[in-house]
Amino acid sequence: MTDGIDVGRALRASAPHALLDTVRDHLATAYGATSVRLYLTDYGGTVLSPCDSLGDEDGLLRISSSPEGRALGSQERRAQQVPHGDAIDHHLPVTVRGDRIGILTVRLPGDRSTPAVLDELRQVVDQLGHEILVAERDTDVYQRVRRISRLTLAAEMQWQLLPARACTAARYALGAQLEPAYAVHGDNFDWASDGDELTLAVTNGMGQGIDASLLTHLAVSALRNARRAGLGLADQAALADQAVYDHYQGASHVSTLLVRVELATGRMEVIDAGSPQMWRLRGRTVERIELDRQLPLGMFEESHYAAESLTVEPGDRLVFVSDGVYEAPAPRGGTYVEAALARGLHATRLLPAALVPGALLRDVAEYRAAETLDDALVLCFDWFGDGLD
User: Which of 14, 332, 352, 361 lies at 20 to 30 Å from 41 by C-alpha?
Assistant: First the structure.
């Protein structure tokens, strides 16, 4: 780094709540930065919230209409000339493995805004993103910044259960979103990759509020426990089914869609245990993948599950939706799946996986002529196969 300053080392030594101050001090010393601002994406994925102005609604930036938001959407740095001078604001996406955390805006003198310096700033934001994720284990600062309104307790439990909202690897990309972001209770998603395979889970616990969240929490934890023990997909479903039944004795159940993808071949195993649906966009063709319906987790004692096989091809997009999406009613009758889901998938086909869920959920809200949704989830899975190797 310039002047021998190791920003990564400084960030690792920083207090968890003081990462922005550390970056600000170093960028001022190394590059002459006169302003350094960090904005984090809110839970709803609609605004950028400034770290320096906690609770200040005037400081919020709309992702859809601000230069910072456009940088986040394009995942490319953007330069903005500062009025009355030669300084330039550089909007730099802070992204970790495809998860779009926010934007770091660095104001530099015009003569310091060189390609070499901007390349070094890219390294800074990469390090900052990783350190924010680590720091969240020890401080609530960044969690509070992301909240433009208070989460319900059920939503708090659901968001803490999630892996991330996006992930990008050589062979695939993932993106997912829950709505209503600040009051979701039963819907959830999970994923994990060990290098040889990718496992996805889309779950929907029955009921409302805390009861639905507790039910889903039990099911997801049981699925993770079985997965981390190295069990196959059918055994994962069976273990989670037994865990839910043992606690609720059939009074509550969890609708679940489990997917395992063999990363070397694109071969998939799928278990449909309830209501989430899987749709495929292949070329310009949109179709629902009809699966063998099996019992939701926890409905009966000792249910048995069997995985069925599919194969994804390079360029395929799979979209998983909960019943809050496909059963969303229109004011004049009909449902979203009947009238608009295929159109929505076509309309978003050029978006990266990370942006598809939010776009579809906004389309559902517009279709319902309502500002908020019932519990709803969209997960988008793009398969590149060998395309990026």
Answer: 14
